[in-house]
Predict the structure.
Amino acid sequence: MGSRPCVLLADGHMGVLVNASNILHGEFDVVGAVTDGRAAVNAACELKPDSVVLDIAMPELDGLDAAKELRRYGFQRKSGVPDRSGRRRVWRGGAG
């Protein structure tokens, strides 16, 4: 993988994955895009990306449970959610 940060995307809607990938590709290497939480955990363990972007509502395993499982596998928790003003708030702790 290149010198840019690697990101894995997980969302239950393929259109969202395509749009997010198109937005991020200029600054990140999108190493994978999956449509359910179980696949996100499996892909993250295999690909070892710098970041995993999880949708909360996904089939098989929702994003919160996927984040908890990733934490058990040693991934660091760091979560970000846009607030109403459009600024991103980041907090340590995430799910769990």
Remarks:
- Residues 81-96 have pLDDT under 50 and may be disordered.
- The domain at 6-91 is CATH 3.40.50.2300 (Rossmann fold).
- The helical segments are 14-24, 37-47, 63-72.
